[in-house]
Amino acid sequence: MLPLKKLVQEHMLIMKMLDALRGLAASAGSGGKISAEKLDYAAKFLMEFIGRFHFGKEEEVFFPYLESMGMGRHDRIIEVLLSDHQQARQYASTFAGAIENYKKGQARALIEAAETIYKYCGLVSKHIEKENKTIVLQAAQTLKEQDYIELSKRFEKIEHETIGANALEKYEGLVEKIG
Ligand SMILES: [Fe+2]
Ligand SMILES: [Fe+2]
User: Fold this and answer.
1) Contact in structure between 140 and 62 (CB atoms under 8 Å)
2) Topology at the third CATH level for domain 3-178
3) pLDDT tens per residue, range 49-77
């Protein structure tokens, strides 16, 4: 699959998960009981698929590659995107901490988890829109056949080092379990 198409497909899966998470947060906020299993799946998706797999691919391969071609410098967009990643990871770890406390019996922790997930969803959905409209679009207009071949190689390498090439299919299943 073409590397940009891959990133966009991952964005679509993440957006789908954000919708499912908003639903989860809404029922937690209105006093509903949420199974610990669902919360664990949500944390797993945020930490592994988004934090390690998707952000990792952008931070270690995609952004540096574009920067090396002079893209994303004048508008400092990559700096903005990297700081979004950092903030998202902070929210994800607050969320994971809150659900651990919830599992230990602290009912109040579910509210903290729900509040954090709303912040996470707001941040990451804006982030993805930003990426699609800036860096992904610029890349689509600039990259040549040779760049696609090189990026695909580098993506595959990092995919194998993190979750594996079937990450999309594997994590799609988690979205179904939450939605
Ligand atoms: Fe990103
Ligand atoms: Fe992204």
Assistant:
1) no
2) Four Helix Bundle (Hemerythrin (Met), subunit A) (1.20.120)
3) 999 999 999 999 999 999 999 887 777 89
Is residue 11 a contact partner of residue 169, using CB atoms and an 8 Å limit? no
Tens of pLDDT, residues 80-114: 999 999 999 999 999 999 999 999 999 889 999 99
Domain extent listing, the chain: 3-178
Q: How far is the CA of 128 from the centre of ligand 2 (A)?
A: 6
In the reported structure, the alpha carbon of residue 131 is separated from the centroid of ligand 2 by a whole-number distance in angstroms of: 6
Please state, as a whole number, how many other Cβ atoms lie within 10 Å of the Cβ of residue 25.
24
Tokens 């979205």 sit on residue: 175
Find the ligand nearest to 11 CA.
2
